[in-house]
Amino acid sequence: MSDPTRAALLRAAGVGAAGLALTAIGSPAAAAARPKEHPNVTLIRGYYAAYADGDLDALRERFFAPDIRWTIPGHHPLAGTKRGVEEVLAFFAELGRAGFRADPMALAPDGDWVIDLHRGWSTAPEGLDITWALAFRIRSNRIVEAINFAADQHAADAFFWRVYKLAKIPDRLAPR
Description:
signal; alpha+beta; 6 strands; about 180 residues; about 30% strand; SnoaL-like; NTF2-like_dom_sf; globular
């Protein structure tokens, strides 16, 4: 295609030849033209990095609000709402026993919320590998609430019951 024909086609498409050259993928102009990442998405990316490193101190100090609420769906020993940093970290420690990993696939901000879609799987023992969605509510650059949604709740319930056994009834009840 001749340069005049190519230029005419680009003009018809609303792109000037100079504009196309400046916004080539990987160019500095293309990087500058990309929208900046929302700060709440950046926070959640940092959270996932700390989680991947097993850095519970970073989660406590940099990511979790003191009054965090973390809701886990299902009918299994780890299900329910954890309130406060200590309960959430205790839950994460239990996940660590099963070698849980998470690989974010998509993060989308909407006001104070970040919606996350990720692959979550166990490594010790293997046996659970499903897609999860989380809704993170952010306040003052901290996670104040997280609500989990499992793509296959029945598989999650079965796995958690198999791995996290409850103590016998006399030992299961709290002293009065």
